[in-house]
Write a structure and sequence with these properties.
This protein has 238 residues and is of the alpha/beta class. Helix content is 34%, strand content 18%.
Length: 238
C-alpha cells in the first residue's frame, strides 16, 4: 500500500446526488415556486418559520429514503485504515455517518440536528420523519427550533472551520470529491493543501476551477472513480 498516512477529504453535493439526494429543489410540488436562496436564510425563517420548516421537512423525507453509495462506503473504509484521516463535508444529509464514517467535519451543519432559536443549550438530533409540530419546539425551553445548518449569509461554525483548516494543513494527500470548487471558504481548502505540499486528487465528472491545479483529475462520478482510485492505491499503483 502507498505509505501516505495522512489524508484529508472534501466532499460536496455530487457524492450525495449519486445516492439520489436532490441538490435543493426536486421536481414538482410547492418548492418549484421558491428558490433555495429565498428559504435558507435567517430572514425567511423570521418571516415564516412554518414555511421554511415545511421545506426542510420535505427535504428530510427525501433524504431518509436515500442510501449511502460506494463512495461513502469507501471513505468509511479509508478512515479505518489510515492513521490520520479527516473527512470534511459540505453536505448536511448525514450519509457519511450512515456509511460508517466517524471523523467527519460538517462545514454546513446537519439537517438531522435542531437548535433552539434562543440558544438555550446545545443542538440535538431528531430523525423523525415527518416532524410534528412545525415549527418544532425546543424540548428545554419551548421556543421554536431551527435546523442546525448554515444558511445563506451566515458564517461557518468556528470549530468546524478550524478543524478543517488543521486537517488540510497537515495532510499529505487530499481528495476533493463531487464539489464544484466554487463555494467559499470550502473552495480554498484544496489550495491550502497544495500550498502546504500535499498531493491533491480531484474526482468529479465535470471540470472545475480547481482541475488545472491538482496533481490528478479523475473524470468519473464519485461512486465509480473513488472505488477505482482506492483499489489502485491499495495495490500501490498510486
Amino acid at each position: 500500500m502507498n505509505p501516505i498516512d495522512s489524508i484529508a477529504v472534501l466532499t460536496g453535493a455530487g457524492i450525495s446526488a449519486e445516492s439520489g439526494v436532490p441538490t435543493f429543489r426536486g421536481p414538482g410540488g410547492l418548492w418549484r415556486r421558491y428558490r433555495a436562496e429565498d428559504l435558507a436564510t435567517p430572514q425567511a425563517f423570521r418571516r415564516d418559520p412554518r414555511l421554511v420548516w415545511e421545506w426542510y421537512d420535505w427535504r428530510r423525507g427525501l433524504i431518509a429514503a436515500c442510501r449511502p453509495n460506494a463512495a461513502h462506503r469507501v471513505l468509511a473504509e479509508m478512515e479505518r485504515r489510515v492513521e490520520a484521516f479527516t473527512l470534511i463535508t459540505q453536505n448536511v444529509d448525514g450519509l457519511h455517518q450512515r456509511a460508517g464514517s466517524r471523523r467527519v467535519v460538517e462545514l454546513h451543519g446537519s439537517i438531522w440536528r435542531l437548535r433552539c432559536t434562543l440558544e438555550c443549550g446545545p443542538a440535538w438530533e431528531d430523525h423523525r420523519v415527518p416532524l410534528d409540530p412545525l415549527p418544532p419546539l425546543c424540548p428545554r425551553c419551548g421556543a421554536p427550533a431551527r435546523p442546525d445548518v448554515v444558511w445563506f449569509g451566515e458564517s461557518l461554525p468556528e470549530a468546524a472551520l478550524e478543524a478543517a483548516l488543521v486537517a488540510v494543513e497537515r495532510c499529505r494527500l487530499m481528495l476533493v470529491i463531487g464539489t464544484s470548487a466554487l463555494v467559499q471558504p470550502a473552495a480554498s481548502l484544496p489550495l491550502l493543501a497544495l500550498r502546504h505540499g500535499a498531493r491533491v486528487v480531484e474526482i468529479n465528472p465535470e471540470p472545475t476551477p480547481l482541475s488545472d491545479l491538482v496533481d490528478e483529475a479523475i473524470r468519473e462520478p464519485a461512486a465509480i472513480g473513488l472505488p477505482g482510485w482506492w483499489q489502485a492505491w491499495m495495490e500501490g499503483e498510486r
